[in-house]
Amino acid sequence: MSRLVNGLGQARDEAVDVRNEVLEPYRADGFAVRIEAAADHALALEALDRSGLTLMSVHPPVDQSPEDALVWVPYEKVADFSRRIQEFTQNTPTGTPKQAGLVANMERVQRALFKHLWQEDEPLPPMDERRWWELWFDPRIAESDPVATLRELGAENQWPVAEVALAVGERLIGHVHASGDELQALLGTNACPVEIRRPTFAQELHAVDRSFQHALVDDLVERVEAAAPDAPTVCVLDTGVSQEHPLLKPSLHGRAHSAVPLHTAADRHGHGTEMAGIALFGDLAPALESQGPVVLTHGLESVKILDGVTGSAASPRTYAETTANAVAAAEIEAVSAGPPRARVFSMAVTNQSGDGTDGTPTLWSAALDALAAGTDVEAHDDRIELIGAPDPDASRLIVVSAGNIRGLEPQQIRTPEGHLDHLTMCDLSRIEEPAQAHNVLTVGAFTELTGVPEDPSFAGFRPLAESGQLSPFSRTSVALTGKPVVKPDIVMEGGNLLVDPGETLLTPHDVVSVTTTGKDFFRQVSSANATSSATAQAARLAALAHATYPGLTPEAVRGLLVHEARWTPDMTGPGLHTSTGRPRLAKKELMKQVIRRYGWGVPTTERVLSSAANAVTLIVQSQLVPFQKVPSGGVRLAELHLHELPWPLEQLQALGAATVELRVTLSYFIEPNPGRRGMQGKYSYASHRLRFAIRAPGESVDGFERRITAQAEAESDTPAHAKAFEGGKNWLVGPQGRNQGSLHSDIWMGSAADLADCGVLAVHPSGGWWKNNNRTDRVGRPVRYALLISLTTEEVETDLYTPIANKIGVPVLGAPEVHSEISTSLPVQTEIGW
Length: 834
Hints:
Elements: H1 2-20, E1 30-37, E2 54-59, E3 68-74, H2 78-86, H3 100-103, E4 106-111, H4 114-117, E5 131-137, H5 146-157, E6 165-168, E7 171-178, H6 180-183, E8 195-197, H7 214-223, E9 224-225, E10 233-238, H8 249-252, E11 256-258, H9 271-281, H10 284-289, E12 294-295, E13 299-304, H11 319-337, E14 343-347, H12 363-372, E15 376-379, E16 383-387, E17 397-401, H13 422-428, E18 441-446, E19 462-463, E20 490-493, E21 498-499, E22 506-507, E23 514-520, E24 523-528, H14 530-548, H15 554-563, E25 565-566, H16 569-572, H17 587-598, E26 602-603, H18 605-609, E27 611-612, E28 615-624, E29 627-629, E30 635-637, E31 639-644, H19 649-655, E32 659-668, E33 690-694, H20 701-713, H21 723-726, H22 735-738, E34 743-751, H23 752-756, E35 760-765, H24 769-772, E36 783-793, H25 801-808, E37 817-818, E38 828-833
Parallel strand pairs: 6-16, 9-12, 10-13, 10-14, 11-13, 14-17, 17-18, 18-20
Antiparallel strand pairs: 1-3, 1-4, 2-3, 5-7, 5-8, 6-7, 15-16, 19-21, 21-22, 23-24, 25-26, 27-37, 28-36, 29-30, 31-35, 31-38, 32-34, 32-36, 33-35
């Protein structure tokens, strides 16, 4: 223990020396120490965040490096901390060492240096190099505003400081341009950061133009009927929009704005106009080539967040700031324009620096999670704040791209046998920030565009990707296996590449791209590809769902697109069950080879907007209170919802051993806690977690309730007594695989007779930082969720829709194709408090 005590004392002495070099108004009241764990052991993080100490951040163990934590120690607490360490050499009356919960796994204590605060996987940049840094502050470790102090120190030392800071959850984030050597002085001030990260600033995008086809556009303009001004909209966050484009202007209704200071909403680069065309029409080619009317049910909005300028040398703009500003701009305009309308935000913009994200939350991804959950956006002169508790009635559906592979060359994807294999490259290319955000709908790209131009110069060319495969542009989370991020959620058309006869060249072409609108008057038709195109298509599909089912929440629409997505045969490969159409893969391999690459597949307009007689989808939209106070002052889980499913029992029992498929999707939004102090317990990223489970065949309702209650209280996804059914062979993914993020989907497949005996599905909470942090302003707050349930028979002509519709009172419009309003509640719903 003397080693730890001496290390603490030396850290204090070194900190005092640094503090004495700081001007009096800015001197810190404490210092940061780095505590290293013993090999193969974990530190008691929650214990380090008590008794006046403040846990700043945590580095998990990597390779041969053990876990370490950075802790803020006020000078007045040094003696007490030292005493507690020394008490470890004494025993309690029961014979165990005193302070064991705090000290047992500590190996080393030292003063935290600038390099210890660095949070990125990449090496710390040269300390003598002047650059922009992203500084995360914890207001608890200083009485004064650390961002204000940073500005004052910046002015004195001639460090440019970004004009706008961001407040997300319990963190303040500022940006400063200086060398690491200069910023080391901050560790002795009351503006000591708790984390240091590499900032991501808005960057320019480029688009590919195609030749105009003026006559076709003029003809289509005459046939388009725009939606009413109060119809649902897709709000495109991109490079702006060409407001005078004849195909876009009637649907914009003047709703074009800019979140880029001193710039108009005009589109100089074209990418935003291309995304707007896809968000409104989808692939424009069918509309251009048709002769009949084109009736639109949703409109457009545009907010410019990119203009090819990363920001002035004095104050760059972070993606998080720009996105928050853009959301505020769209919503302020909507309030002034009249009654609220459903809106889908579409952002085909990612951070292109580095090799994708490692899945860890960032400022940008956390800001999107907060915005999606319904956090208010408040703009000040010097900061953008995401403030207050999330409001379910203000939740937002945000659709983002998974990110693109750029500059792909044949030598990068050639196998040892000489074949071109783009899938391996896609699997090695990690999704890009902010695609790891929990609450967004992340979209990757697949392709069915495999045509070759008729131009003789393309003789002998072939498409790189086969129809139904992943687009060569799309990134995945395959390389993040073992991480909690499972993205994309779905895939949409993203185009292809053509391979020359000698397999030495990969080239894009209009024929293997999506047709859309162009920014220039003389080039009104363009093409787009990659995950940008896919994202805009997904946002359009979400807007169509809002228009068709106006009662659906953003959570439900997000869940609906995932629920109605399907894999193509090429996505699941040769390991496909011929009788069921689902992959013949072990659960872990399914996650790696299919879901982390394709999400849940491709949703189509037909599936999202209609229900066939032998495949019916029901939606429950509800809310529950996840946590409640107990008399002792603690917090425990509050509610369990049991939903009785309106199965057509006679029809299922008549089917007997025939195979049926039950598909379940649970969608909700969490409030983020983005500081890097670990991702479990008190430091969980998610405010709350929800889970679903179904009653096993032969299990009583009381027994089912007891089982789920035990599972929820244990905050475990696979308690031993539930493995036989919840984790068994009937579920395609199982609880361990599906319970990531805030969108959970799975497929149960078995006999109709077994399913007829289930009939009850539970939704229950399972921990989160609202509970573990004992947040009095969050405990007792209800949260909203959407539960989607589909029942399908395969190769059996049994009408399941009609008896279900009759049972819940939905009118039957006809068979075999039945189009109906999705039910927003099931006939029986009980809420049971623990």
